[in-house]
Amino acid sequence: MRAYTPQNITEAVIEQMATTPDPRMKEIMAAAVRHLHDFAREVNLTPAEWIKGIEFMTKVGQMCSPARQEFILLSDTLGLSALVNIMHDKTKMEEATSASLLGPFFRENTPTFQPGAQIAKAPGDKEVVLYGRVTNAQGAPLANAMVTVWQTAADGRYDIQNGIEETDCRGIFRTDQNGNYLIRTVRPLGYFIPLDGPVGQMVMSQKRHGMRPAHIHFLIAAPGYRELVTALYLAGDEHLEDDVVFGASGDLVAEVKDNDPACPIKGLPSIHFDFALARESEADRRAGRVGADPAAVTAGNGKDSEPYGQPPPEMAAAAKEKKPGFLGGLFRGR
Ligand SMILES: [Fe+2]
């Protein structure tokens, strides 16, 4: 009988899994085992560290509910979502608008609006207009394209963080005959990712600032075209270069202009951005999205507690004061 060693255990596992009928599943699992074992060997993982990892993953799972997906947040903060997204974006058939993260706050339950409608229930004096065109890669307008938008309210929180029944600051619009979309909303704020769970604990223990730059999410779809999951990042935000989930990217930075003569709604600040969609390939139809409505991933967890808490007061205070040391990551490279 063979004796397992730190080296041959990996091949033994892969050999035993070789009966996996689905070839892609077989490939993914073999690579996962190889990298997982390499990781344990590289860091000389101790039993205590191994159980700590198990405890952490358990807490991440327990934190998930129909209103919250802590695993997506973990993937986001480790840069895995961004990596999968960037790799997927490279496979598009033609040059088009870059993709960005779907994030943990997308939800299927989104109201439909007429062009020019205001999606914020309490816009106050923070109104802003979003306008532009949706075209194909050659610049021809796409009529009746579906433009789904979601963002924080003026207080920096997503509706779902206040309760699963709430819908605010999200909506579905259609482009007109010339591919134009027109949306009224509020200026989004940069925000802390949820810090009250295990992922927040991880981020804080690493002395990262835990913030995303202000942004507006878009999901744009038209028949025959690759679905575009993207976001616009507001120019001037201090966290464009060090987004805690690595979503912000140069070509998706948009400026809020005060008196843009081309804006169809006068007297309000506005953001102009044109989106181009690539044609859809056979592979695109199977690729899916990097992210999902938490309710679709975590149905019926049965938790009736508040799905999101506040960031710890010391994190909020440190962000305000920009305390060196505590928010080490904030000052990295400056
Ligand atoms: Fe977001």
What would you say about this model in short?
27% of the residues lie in helices and 16% in strands. The protein is of the alpha/beta class and 334 residues long. The protein starts with 7 loop residues before the first helix and ends in a 13-residue tail after the last helix.
Keywords:
alpha/beta, 5-stranded mixed beta sheet, 16% strand, globular, binds fe (ii) ion
Q: Which ions, cofactors or small ligands are bound in this entry?
A: fe (ii) ion
Strand order of the largest sheet: 3-2-7-8-9
Cα radius of gyration in angstroms: 22 Å
Compute the average pLDDT.
91
Q: What string, H for helix and E for strand, traces the elements in order? A: HHHHHEEEEEHEEEEEEHHH
Low-confidence stretches: 324-334
Given helix and strand content, the structural type is alpha/beta
The number of helical elements comes to 9
Q: State which percent range the strand residues make up.
A: 15-25%
| Span between termini | 59 Å
Shape: globular
Task: Describe the largest sheet.
Answer: 5 strands, mixed
